[in-house]
């Protein structure tokens, strides 16, 4: 097995950035989901409520700061004085940006396999399937599918994995919601994806993992089982 893709999402519910290397600590990839989008009630919102967020991308520019890239190509930093108003105009909802507490350690990393993505593409030939729909942090390639399910990661719960110095323990499956139907810069809106995942996969696609030992990883690194 090897690391095929690495992704970081500096702003929760906003599209992220592909990486060639990443430092992974107790709360996941450094700089991942450190900013949240709040609604007009000053509560954390998400792309299920504001679908246009998924058409925006965020890239890291500094510690705690990201640059937002709008569908029309406009760009601005999250610490700009007019950031809230510009994002609100882009997503057609009154929102503001704020710092965010990390996810629980048991959900520090979200992992998918290329096997699962290919299986889903085969099951839904009329749907556009890529990683941006599902927002994983790690996509692993060359994964054995001994059970022949097409979704080998679903059999990993409780197992421990090493990627270089990084040590992970798979904690559970990733329950899916309406976000995987939303339009991103690379795939269109598609309700069929969630319907199929809910019906055929018990609404689970991909897994979460906690970090037992931090480490630096790169695309192409070998991943191996410790148990």
Beta fraction: 25-35%
DSSP helix count?
4
Anisotropy-based shape: globular
Beta strand count: 16
Structural class based on helices, strands and sheet pairing: alpha+beta
Task: Explain the overall architecture.
This protein has 227 residues and is α+β, with helices and mostly antiparallel strands. It has helices at 83-91, 114-123, 131-134, 191-200; strands at residues 2-8, 17-19, 21-25, 28-29, 35-38, 57-62, 65-69, 75-77, 96-99, 109-113, 138-141, 160-163, 166-175, 204-213, 215-218, 224-225. The strands form four sheets. Strands 2-1-11-10-14-13-12-16 form an eight-stranded mixed beta sheet.
Give me the secondary-structure topology:
Layout: E1 2-8, E2 17-19, E3 21-25, E4 28-29, E5 35-38, E6 57-62, E7 65-69, E8 75-77, H1 83-91, E9 96-99, E10 109-113, H2 114-123, H3 131-134, E11 138-141, E12 160-163, E13 166-175, H4 191-200, E14 204-213, E15 215-218, E16 224-225
Parallel strand pairs: 10-11
Antiparallel strand pairs: 1-2, 1-11, 3-4, 3-15, 5-9, 6-7, 7-8, 10-14, 12-13, 12-16, 13-14
